[in-house]
């Protein structure tokens, strides 16, 4: 198999040790989307328990993220949307039905106890990782609580409220001329693509199920616009894709991307709903096949941020992210599962790896060759490593000592609030990830490879979006570090607090809805 990019000088060996920073808040597993909802933050706690009992925590710097603040989230999101997220509660939502509809909150994205704190926590971890990378304090940063790639500037979508990935990329752009975003979630990374659709500073590459599937975007022909033309790559896939078929696309495409784009940093979204047997997914990847994407991107020896994302068979999510943490560390993790707080979840085999199913692979060799050929052709039209005009750089985000006044462990939300999703009869219903309903192709700002855009309204909208992107990047971008640079206090994530590896899991309580099925 042609793996692509192996002649690049930047590629290192898998055996090379990397300095890894791992972000985890012990309270993240307490947040609860509601009865029957497939998104369960509890999976992050399960992942952490496996990392602890496999002995992987001792090989990383374990950090508690500092929560992102209002103004930090507003670097991408609209002020009124963030104000809404901060104020809405299960008790007040019935009085704000119009706002719930406006911001697409209440169905896929329910109001639950501690919602805004949850957003602050997972966003803080991703941006904290970006800051660590910018300061060259780690080679790889990990935030499995992050990766919520569907959130838009002014609305929630697909279980996602704030887009921690966009915020982390904006932070990385302070230090790096070019940032690469790669998405292996089964769902298209629409929120991140849309945010950077008209810039050549960020390349987005998404491998996803396409065709009557949430969110309905991510066509092969969606390639970016204006300065961003050819800087958005979409790899549309069908049901049942297996490891070999997936890697026959991933490695040659990503090898060519690394050769042409030469990013200073990589953000890899590791959504685990692309695994075989996922509750909402329809791919047939093994954990090793999924982890091979992490291994391959790690081999380029470029600073990398790993974030989570989808994944709804939570025992397999924990398996996957534990294994991929080992890949990041360069450690081969034993298949036999160690005793841990959630041991019964992993029966009857009690192993890290699970065999894929015998489901049909609907991705024919001819289809895969056509997709690969078209994307490599698009990449050939990309100029090598776009140059960026240097400008006076804004100050770095620093990591001062933690603010002692901020510490208040009593100001936490419980997890037992089961909020009913509101019954909002909408004239225009948003596509639903929760119901996994078939949806038509959603309008997305795009440019076809073959034809120019003719709709003047669409063009005006994209042009306006491009101006917003340019302003967003201009406000945060720094390209050159000089010895005389003044460093000022952090604007997003302050110095996280180290966590003791074995302290937070002892008091964890399992949710009845998370217990493994007896069937």
Average predicted confidence as pLDDT:
82
> How far apart are the first and last residues' alpha carbons, in Å?
40 Å
- Helix vs. strand class: alpha/beta
The largest beta-sheet arranges its strands as 6-5-4-7-8-3-1-2-11
The CATH topology name reads Arginase, Chain A
CATH superfamily caption: Histone deacetylase domain
Largest sheet: 9 strands, mixed
State Rg: 21 Å
The CATH architecture designation is: 3-Layer(aba) Sandwich
| Sequence stretches where pLDDT stays below 50 over 5 or more residues | 1-12, 400-427, 437-455, 478-495, 502-519
Shape estimate: globular
Instruction: Estimate percent helicity.
Output: 25-40%
Percentage of residues in strands: 5-15%
- What is the string of helix and strand elements? EHEHHHHEHEHEEHEHEHHEHEE
* Total helical segments: 12
Beta-strand segment tally? 11
Overall structural domain count: 1
CATH top level is Alpha Beta
């Amino acid at each position: 198999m042609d793996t692509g990019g192996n002649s690049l000088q930047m590629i290192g060996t898998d055996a090379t040790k990397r300095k890894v920073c791992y972000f985890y808040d012990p309270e993240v597993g307490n947040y609860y989307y509601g009865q029957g909802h497939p998104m369960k933050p509890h999976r992050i706690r399960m992942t952490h328990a496996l990392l602890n009992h496999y002995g992987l925590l001792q090989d990383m710097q374990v950090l508690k993220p500092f929560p992102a603040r209002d103004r930090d989230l507003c670097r991408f999101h609209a002020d009124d949307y963030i104000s809404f997220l901060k104020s809405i509660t299960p008790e007040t939502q019935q009085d704000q039905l119009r706002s719930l509809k406006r911001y697409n909150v209440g169905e896929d994205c329910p109001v639950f106890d501690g919602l805004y704190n949850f957003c602050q926590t997972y966003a803080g971890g991703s941006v904290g990782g970006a800051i660590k990378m910018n300061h060259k304090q780690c080679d790889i940063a990990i935030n499995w609580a992050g990766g919520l790639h569907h959130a838009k500037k002014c609305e929630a979508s697909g279980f996602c409220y704030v887009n921690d990935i966009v915020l982390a990329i904006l932070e990385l752009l302070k230090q790096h001329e070019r940032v690469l975003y790669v998405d292996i979630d089964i769902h298209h990374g629409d929120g991140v693509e849309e945010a950077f659709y008209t810039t050549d500073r960020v390349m987005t590459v998404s491998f996803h199920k396409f065709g009557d599937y949430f969110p309905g975007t991510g066509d092969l022909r969606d390639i970016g616009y204006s300065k961003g033309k050819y800087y958005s790559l979409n790899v549309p896939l069908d049901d049942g894709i297996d490891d070999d078929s997936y890697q026959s696309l991933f490695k040659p495409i990503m090898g060519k991307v690394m050769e042409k784009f030469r990013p200073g940093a990589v953000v890899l979204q590791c959504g685990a709903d692309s695994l075989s047997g996922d509750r909402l997914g329809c791919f047939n990847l093994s954990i090793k096949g999924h982890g091979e994407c992490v291994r391959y991107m790690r081999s380029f020896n470029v600073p990398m941020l790993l974030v989570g994302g989808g994944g709804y068979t939570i025992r397999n999510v924990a398996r996957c992210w534990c294994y991929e943490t080992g890949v990041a560390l360069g450690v081969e993790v034993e298949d036999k599962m160690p005793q841990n707080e959630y041991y019964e979840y992993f029966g009857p085999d009690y192993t890290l790896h699970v065999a894929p199913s015998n489901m049909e692979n609907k991705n024919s060799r001819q289809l895969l060759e056509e997709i690969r050929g078209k994307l490599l052709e698009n990449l050939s039209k990309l100029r090598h490593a776009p140059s960026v005009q240097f400008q006076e750089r804004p100050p770095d985000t620093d990591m001062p000592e933690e603010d002692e006044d901020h510490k208040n462990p009593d100001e936490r939300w419980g997890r037992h609030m089961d909020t009913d999703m509101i019954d909002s009869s909408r004239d225009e219903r948003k596509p639903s990830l929760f119901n996994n309903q078939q949806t038509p192709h959603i309008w997305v700002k795009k440019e076809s490879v073959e034809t120019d855009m003719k709709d003047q309204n669409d063009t005006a909208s994209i042009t306006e979006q491009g101006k917003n992107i340019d302003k967003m990047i201009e406000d945060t971008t720094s390209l050159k570090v000089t010895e005389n640079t003044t460093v000022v206090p952090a604007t997003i994530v302050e110095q996280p607090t180290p966590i003791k590896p074995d302290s937070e899991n002892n008091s964890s309580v399992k949710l009845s809805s998370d217990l493994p099925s007896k069937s």
